[in-house]
Amino acid sequence: MTSTPDATAFAELVDATRDQTSALLGDTIAYSVDDWAAPSRLPGWTRSHVAAHLVENAKAMIRLCKGLTDGRLRRLYADDESKRLAIETGALADPLTLQIELDTTASELQAAFANLDDVGRTVALGPSLVVTAGELPLARLSEVVLHHSDLTGEPPQVSGAVLNALLDFQLRREANRSNLPPVLIMSDEGFSARAGGDGDTSTLMGPGVDLLWWLARGVDSPAISGLNTERGDESSTE
Fold it and tell me: Model's pTM, two decimal places?
């Protein structure tokens, strides 16, 4: 199921993506060579791998936006192997290059979002994730917010309508994943939705950021009530 944000919601998502990217860049600007080489929260990935992925994700979304504008729809990535190779190569860059690439590609993507006109057209971000063009800023926002947490090890720094939008988007991403048990998500901020397969449904209640981190990365939090199952780490790197 997809939905198309109205003009106001679309603009707010574009602004939120810019603001969250600025927050990420504010942290990474201080990273040394050793900091970049340190493990991230994603198994097998250093911080530099996370940065390289964000760079490649921005480039891929720019291609999508351009394809939507000129009528030549493109895939997000050509194939998994070329995506993997680009990330492995990008992860070898020095700190300054990583920072410049993160900043430059993010700025180019913001401009591409601003030029989108047919926001109702659907695009596939992966084998099981179809969104409208109007939701591309939300998809990028999810990448930036979650990977920022992968870099810092801290919970996502979002709130309000942006948090609710990310919770809803993450639940849609999880819809076709078999490792999510049937759950009713109820955040302290008022968000409520069901996800997972069939069977007895557990009710999970707590702060929205903790629920988002659990959904996306399997991070258990004492602030969540109702947790009675374990989930492995999820990379969520479309």
Answer: 0.91
Q: What is the DSSP letter of 158?
A: -
Q: What is the pLDDT of residue 182?
A: 86
Q: Are the C-beta atoms of 76 and 124 separated by less than 8 Å?
A: yes
- CB of 140 closer than 8 Å to CB of 128: no
Q: Residue 234 — pLDDT band, cuts 50, 70, 90? A: very low
Q: Which of 180, 179, 183, 206 is nearest to 193 (CA)?
A: 183
Q: Give one word for 206, left, alpha or beta, with left for phi > 0 and alpha for psi -120 to 50.
A: left
pLDDT in tens, 56-86: 999 999 999 988 888 776 677 778 888 999 9
Nearest-5° Cα angle at 123, 211 to 48: 55
Tell the burial category of 82 from Cβ atoms under 10 Å away from its Cβ (0-12, 13-18, 19+).
exposed
CA distances from 188 to 71, 84, 116, 159 (A): 43, 38, 35, 11
Element (H, E) at 186: strand 183-187
